[in-house]
Amino acid sequence: MMFSIPDLSIDDQAPARFRPQPGSRTEAARHRRLRRDLTAAVERHNFILHYQPRLSLATGERTGLEALLRWPQARHGIVSAASFIPLAEEAGLITTIGGWVLLAACREAMRWQQPWVVSVNVSPRQITEGALLGQVAAALDVSGLDPERLELELAESTLLGVDIDSLLTLSAIRDLGAGVGLDNFGTGLASLSMLKRLPLTSMKIDRSLVRDLPLDGEDAAIVRAVIDTAKALGLIAVAEGIETEAQRAFLAACGCPEGQGFLFGRPAPAEALRSAA
Ligand code: C2E
Ligand code: MG
């Protein structure tokens, strides 16, 4: 399968690991090599998924697992998503990768001991290129997963300026029975009225708001308000990036139903997480 890859410009936002050194004589060559390697990885499906547990903050029981993409790369070892997703988006590869992720995650969820929800991150390109609904339907059909066990995660920034076609796509996905979660809430400029318009089932409180809890009074007030708003709208609030017991205790006391973070478990290969252990 051939992919058409646009020329990549130097991206200030790209992760440091792959950011070409300004003025470096090898800059263009490195960029070309990386694009070539990523394209080859897509053609060979040479990716893996790690999974990170999500828990009920009231009981400590696992409620689901988030699939996080990893690229086993000859030169860099296992590369995490944050380091290459921007490149995959620029190179026009993310929609193909996203289809693979959906199917692989649904298949993996069929092997779990309990009916935990699997959360899959979705790129805005999968929506704007008109692929997402078909990819979700195919992943559910081929894997046989109960649609209620699949939840898509869309970054808050993705949904700013969401058009009518995207809304229809998300509604159709909800009609299939899958959930739609708003990811990284608190990092963009999403308005509360947008929360009402979108067919959402959950929202994730970004880890930048969790990091300084419980000492930062402003973050504490914002997080409390977000948890209350989610509850009032019938959405499950999930606090991300919980690293300390003090953060967990504060969020639990605020009534945040679910949480995720290094305190409970780092992203790990699927085999390690199939049972509750
Ligand atoms: P995200 O969806 O917000 O995922 C959470 C990121 O935070 C993950 O990084 C995870 O390893 C990290 N993390 C989890 N708990 C903690 C914690 O307690 N502390 C800290 N400091 N970090 C924590 P990762 O795996 O590098 O993923 C980065 C982003 O890449 C994800 O952010 C998501 O937006 C995107 N991504 C991951 N997998 C996919 C995918 O399959 N498709 C698409 N389109 N995007 C993906
Ligand atoms: Mg996510």
Can you offer a commentary on this structure?
This protein is of the alpha/beta class and 277 residues long. The protein has a single domain (51-66, 97-276), classed as TIM Barrel. The chain contains ten helices and ten strands. It has helices spanning 27-43, 81-90, 94-109, 124-128, 132-143, 164-176, 192-197, 207-210, 217-232, 245-253; strands spanning 48-56, 62-73, 77-80, 117-122, 150-155, 179-185, 202-205, 236-239, 258-260, 268-269. It binds ligand C2E and magnesium ion.
Report strand order across the widest sheet: 1-2-4-5-6-7-8-9
Poorly predicted segments: 1-16
- DSSP helical segment count: 10
| C-alpha geometry | globular
Q: Number of folding domains?
A: 1
Distance between the termini: 41 Å
| Cofactors and ligands | ligand C2E, magnesium ion
Summary keywords:
binds magnesium ion, alpha/beta, 8-stranded mixed barrel, disordered N terminus, 277 residues, binds ligand C2E
Write the layout of secondary structure elements.
Blueprint: H1 27-43, E1 48-56, E2 62-73, E3 77-80, H2 81-90, H3 94-109, E4 117-122, H4 124-128, H5 132-143, E5 150-155, H6 164-176, E6 179-185, H7 192-197, E7 202-205, H8 207-210, H9 217-232, E8 236-239, H10 245-253, E9 258-260, E10 268-269
Parallel strand pairs: 2-4, 4-5, 5-6, 6-7, 7-8, 8-9
Antiparallel strand pairs: 1-2, 1-9, 1-10, 2-3
Helix pairs in contact: 3-5, 5-6
The structure holds ligand C2E and magnesium ion.
